[in-house]
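Protein modeling request. Please complete all fields; requests missing the sequence field cannot be processed.
Requester role: graduate student
Desired output: 3D structure, token encoding
Chains: 1
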Amino acid sequence: MPLPRIAVDNAAIVVKGAFNPAIFSPLWLQNVGLIGETEFEAAVLDGISRDFAIFSVDWLNLQVLPDSIQLRTEVAEETERMRDVAIGILRALPHTPLSALGINRIAHFDAENEERWHAIGDRLAPKKVWSSALKFPATRSVSIIGGRAGNYGGSVTVTVEPSTVIPYGVFVAINDHYDFTRVDDPPMSRADVTLPQNVEPRTGMASIAIEILNDRWSPSRAESDRIIQLVGESG
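Delivered output (235 residues):
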């Protein structure tokens, strides 16, 4: 079946580590060859300091904090280009300590009517167990974590909530998390799936992050499509 009608579709890459926000700017991106003159001239600065750097260059939004970089785009045709910018940043800063990487997606899709909207929530979070304690229980948020195939350590967390953007809409957030470890086998049971841990950033991880963005970008996008489709079909 096709994907449900998606009204808002954001892609993001989050890299956790130890960063100096003050070095990041549209000019720096241009100097390292990641954006062109036209994008540089159209850049919008929200602020750059030692504590944060927030700016946008047409199709790309960038936020840098001392412990993270987030690249985000709302333009579906530019998702791979955003990935290429992230790889370019990592190549330009090969010795920066890193701790984790997330290939993330946020979508709002139209459930079309109130009945199907509630049916999705009832399928993901059955209400019978709550009927003796609550009047008219409704789904506010559902979060599921699971493993994935492949040899990179980490997990996938899916959060489903009512959309605050469109009437009778469904919000789906997918965090495809990588901790820069390698595993011989995919998870064999629930006991093998762990919540993302806070670990100290370490050097030498940039090459692994680049490898993940090259190897896992297309599979991660395809898997997020399947998740959104699954949620849509649950109603």
